[in-house]
Amino acid sequence: MFSSCARTGLKKYYTRISPEEFASYDSAILKLKSKYGNVYHAYQHARGNFKIDFLVYQKIENGEKGGLYKLDSFTGIKNDSTFIFYGNPLVMTSDTTNWPRGLWFHTHTEGSTTDFQTDSVPRNKPDINYSALSMGIYNLQKGKLVKISAIQSEEEFNRLHPEGFVYLPNPGRFYILAKFTQVK
Known about the structure:
Elements: E1 14-17, H1 19-24, E2 27-34, E3 37-45, E4 51-61, E5 64-71, E6 75-79, E7 82-86, E8 103-110, E9 113-117, E10 137-141, E11 144-149, H2 154-160, E12 164-168, E13 175-179
Antiparallel strand pairs: 1-5, 2-3, 3-4, 4-5, 6-7, 7-13, 8-9, 8-12, 10-11, 10-12
């Protein structure tokens, strides 16, 4: 079954926190410093010996330190001004050898029910130069991989509602890119 992040809107990917909450974390290591803000890799104890880690963004406004934002656990940094907010992985498997190539899955709609099979690969898949593919959503049409969107987000996928075999390039997940300045 397809696992959806079921989120819309950028604000769903982060939460504003107080300086006191930030100070309560077990540790916070500066990961990136830019003119837009500082990004920390923070750690916090959970139950037992388990630690959770996440990113915290401290915004810089008019040269002064501003608000603190705890970012979604699937957040990455693209560069010194852009976050990558990933959706949940579509498939959970111990075989991660093919993930750098992206992810194939199959979708089929019958009436109002859509069936997603995340472990599906086309039987006669075409020769593909995976490293030449750019971000986006691809659909297998008449034996050829066709880019149907340059946006690799769940919202875009839901809007397009493709049928048949779908391919998401590396990292094989839906995501959105957001500038540091968009975090408010």
